[in-house]
Amino acid sequence: MAANKTLKIGDVSLQGKFLLAPMSGVTNSIFRRIVRKYGAALVFSEVISAEGLVRGNFRTLRMLRFREEERPISIQLLGSDPQVMAQAAQIVSRFNPDFIDLNFGCPARKVTGKGAGASLLRDINLSRRIIEAVVRATPIPVTLKMRIGWDSRSIVALQLAKLAEDCGIRGVIIHGRTASQKFSGEASLEMIGRVKEEVSIPVIGNGDVNSPERARKMILTTGCDGVMIGRGALGNPWIFLQAQAYLRGEEPPQPPSLKEKIKLCLAHYRMALEEMGEFKAVREMRKNISWYTKGLPQGSTLRKEIYEMERSAEVMRRLSLYQKSVVTGGVCGFG
Ligand SMILES: Cc1cc2nc3c(=O)[nH]c(=O)nc-3n(C[C@H](O)[C@H](O)[C@H](O)COP(=O)(O)O)c2cc1C
Prior knowledge:
This protein is an alpha/beta fold. 44% of the residues lie in helices and 15% in strands. It folds into 2 domains: 8-247, TIM Barrel, CATH 3.20.20.70; 258-327, Non-ribosomal Peptide Synthetase Peptidyl Carrier Protein, Chain A, CATH 1.10.1200. Helix 4 (82-93) links the parallel strand 5 and strand 6. Helix 4 (82-93) runs parallel beside helix 6, helix 9 packs across helix 10 (239-247) and helix 11 runs antiparallel to helix 12. The termini are far apart.
C-alpha cells in the first residue's frame, strides 16, 4: 500500500512522505532549516530565475546557498529557454543539491507573459525541449512541478507527466489546479490519482493540504507517493510530524501550545537577525509572526502593534511579554 512504502526519488530515499513546497518569499534557508527539524522529508528553494543565474545576477546566485542540515534539498528553476535552463542547471549542479526541480506551474502574469511557469503547459513541444536539455545537462535527478493544465479545457497533466517520465524526469509534483484557477476552487484529487496510474515515477500530490487528515486523505484517495505542503506549513512546521504520525495510524501529536508557538517564533526571529541584520529581519519576520500567531487569543492586537515596531529588541520583548501573560492568564483571562 502506497501509505507504507518509502518514498524514493531517483536514488534518494526520503525519510517520510511530506515535502515542503517551494514558496517565493518564504522558503529561504532559515525556514527550510526549521521545517527539516520538524520532519519535512524534503525541502524546496524559492523559485530561482534561470536567466538571473546565467547572467550572474548576485542576488539570484545568493539564493542558491543552503546548509548541509537542510538536506535533502531541491533547487527550483524557472525559465522558458532550453539552453538557458540547461546552463542554469549546470550552475546549480556546482552547489550539489539533492534535486533540481522545474517550475511548470507558476500562474503569475509576469512569469507566463515570458512563456515560463504555467505557460509551458500550453506548449508541449517547448516543454519537451526544456526537459531534455536540463536532464542532459546535469547528473542531479530532475523533478517537475506542474499544474494540471492551463485551464479546464486544456488538461495536460497525463500527457505531460508521461512525456516527462520518457525524457528522464525522476518524479512529478502535481498541484491539482489549472493555472487559470490560481488558488480558487479545490485541488483535484482525481487528476492526481489519474497521473499516478499513468506513470511509474513517483507522483507527489499537492494542493490544500493543511491538516494531517487532509494529508492522509490525499495519499489514500489518489495513491500518490508523497504529499507536498505549502500554505499549511506557514507558521506551522509541526504539520509534517503530525501528518507522518497520523499516516502511521497513530493519533497525531498534540497541536503545539501557544507557548511552543511563540518560542519557535522567537527562535526564528533570532535566526533571521543573525542572517539578515536588523532592518531586513524586522520586515521579513512580520509576515512570519502573523502566521505563528494566527488564531491565538488577542493575536490581531499583537500583530497590529508589532507591524509598527522598527526595532527587533522591542518586537521580541513584546512577543515574550505576550507569551508570559497569556500563559499565566493575563491577556485573556484563561489559565
Ligand atoms: C506565497 C507563495 C509562494 C509560492 N511560490 C512558489 C514558487 O516559488 N514555486 C512554485 O512552484 N510554487 C510556488 N507556490 C505554490 C506552492 O508551491 C503550492 O503549489 C501551492 O501553494 C499549493 O499548495 P498548498 O495548498 O499546500 O499551499 C507558492 C505559493 C505561495 C502561497
